[in-house]
Amino acid sequence: MEAGFRELKTQGSREVHESLVLDKAGNRIPVEIRSFAVYDGSRFLRTFSIVRDIREVKNLQNQLIHSSRLAAIGEISACIAHDITNPLAVIKLYLDLLQTQLQDLAAHDPAGAAGLDDSVNNLAKSAGKIEKLCLHLREFSRSRETTMEAVDLRGVINDALFMVSNKLDRGGVAVTKQFPEDLPLVRGNASQLEQVFMNLFSNACDAMQGRTPSLLSINLVPVFGGNRADGGGVEVRVTDNGSGMPATVRDQMFLPFFTTKPKGEGTGLGLTISRNIIRRHGGEIRGESEEGKGTVFHVTLPPWTPQAGPE
User: What is the Cα–Cα distance from 215 to 201, expressed in whole angstroms?
Assistant: First the structure.
């Protein structure tokens, strides 16, 4: 402060610079400050500053930075998936050769072949999971125009669960699914919908930290009639038994950059982006929560009509 005032007295004005001010509640507000020195002849009288609230500008800058990071992550994911695919192809080739050799071994040593066969099968399953993960990374990071088509939400939900399976396993989360056999197709983009449900499942996992047991329930329910002009669709209910949200948090959960997570662990954009995606799909998303009693998210999507065709 002292150095700034000395410079101001000497130069008469200071370039615009950014700083922070505190409101009465102790919240930090980013501001832009332009300061001038006021003189009476050669005698210094006082300083004069213009302070402008730049929270909206900062929010837009942060959103652009986050978008750039997401784009960079997408490119990195695609490169990693490509680099993993090449050695994975060699691994799968040698697994095929091992399985052929095991068939020959089984004719001479059935007991020994049986033990090795289990190991080779486990390796093949793990290689299959890696291959599936690489495929999803490449699809998820691919930049393309949004195409609306017929989507089976059961596949989208399973793919989203697969992508966050490591986090669910670490958290000891038990997942239950209720998928009706006669579930109608919905109109949507599978990659974008997968992004929505990955975010919901990840948030649920975070909310259940320390809970025993941690339970995540996913129900797909056909919707008929109601307020929908088209007379149908599918509702996805994502339920957790986590810590829940107080009313003050619940009312702001879809606001951009609002997060209750520690700094560095959340951007506050997940639910905002999810809501925008669902709205572009012509659907609705809402959350019900009570502190200490868990959270339920309802995602409703319009049905696929064959006469509409892909867009």
Answer: 11
Instruction: Write the CB contacts of 288 (distance below 8 Å, at least 6 apart in sequence).
Output: 295, 296, 297, 298
> Does the residue 36 lie in any domain?
yes
Query: Which residue from 161, 171, 167 is spatially nearest to 242, judged by alpha carbons?
Result: 171
Distances (CA, A) of 88 to 54, 85, 262: 50, 5, 37
Q: How far apart are CA 271 and CA 204, in angstroms?
A: 12
Tell which of 141, 165, 191 closes a domain.
Answer: 141
Helix axes 190-207, 153-163, angle to 10 degrees: 50
Dist CA 209 CA 214 (whole Å): 8
Statement to judge: residues 128 and 157 lie in one domain? no
Range of the domain at 96: 58-141
Q: For residue 301, which of 281, 276, 273 has the smallest C-alpha distance? A: 281
Burial of 196 (0-12, 13-18, 19+ CB in 10 A): buried
Which of 110, 141, 172 is a domain's end point? Answer: 141
Report yes or no on whether pTM surpasses 0.85.
no
117 shares a domain with 25? no
Mean pLDDT by 10 residues, the chain (311 residues): 77 78 89 87 84 87 69 70 82 86 80 76 82 70 68 92 87 92 88 88 89 92 61 87 82 68 57 85 89 90 73 55
Both 131 and 205 in a single domain? Answer: no
In a domain, 310, yes or no: no
The two three-digit tokens of residue 271, written as one number? 């639910």
Q: How many CB atoms lie within 10 A of CB 233?
A: 22
